[in-house]
């Protein structure tokens, strides 16, 4: 109920930005940081309606709290301002950008579920009946994220042809989005074929988040390309991000060694 109430308030806030701006709420980096947890929590509520397990709600609640706190804390422009010329197409801005950023929300939800799996794996010595359930739930979140990401890339190609006269140009954003998609596709195929299971899927999901971060954050702030219009300004790597990356690598190493 609390998560649903938070989602309702979040929905009202996004609708207000849409009404005031007259466009979809994903035209700058700040707005995408509002859309990612919105999608993650909405997806979690749907999954909770189906499975009634609590894992999705827990993961989405943690993700939403962290991302919304970061959106307030980091120095981003939160004003509702006119979009750059290349984004002045509400149809494609709605279809492509909402889809691609929604995939980040679904995959981020999967990453948090992977962390829950890994923590439970460590706490229970790799044997617990809940791990089997979590493995299935993680798989479902990954499936949704991959479908959305693939759809967003395809739709982006169509928009690129309309805007720039070509479907694909190996722009940094396009390249990193493709790498992220290929990673998670390989992960899903590996699980389906039996090459990966359990903790291997969880650790691979977390590992893929580094690619997702590069696609979402790194390209927008540190690489020059046709997609470098998210409203950010290149600065030294934030200490908080460096601390997270180090902590994540240590976590992966500890869980990986424990699983050997």
State the end-to-end CA separation. Answer: 40 Å
* Average pLDDT reading: 87
| Sheet with most strands | none
Number of helices: 8
| Quaternary structure | single chain
Range of strand content: under 5%
Determine the structural class based on helices, strands and strand pairing: mainly alpha
Shape: globular
Low-confidence stretches: none
Please give the share of residues in helix.
over 70%
Order of helices and strands: HHHHHHHH
Query: What's the count of strands?
Result: 0
Q: What's the gyration radius in Å?
A: 18 Å
Please provide a written account of the structure.
This protein has helices spanning about 1-20, 30-50, 55-75, 90-125, 130-165, 170-195, 200-220, 240-260. It is mainly alpha-helical and about 260 residues long. Helix 2 (about 30-50) crosses helix 4 and helix 4 crosses helix 7. The longest helix has about 35 residues, at about 130-165. The protein is globular, with a radius of gyration of 18 Å. The N and C termini lie far apart (about 40 Å).
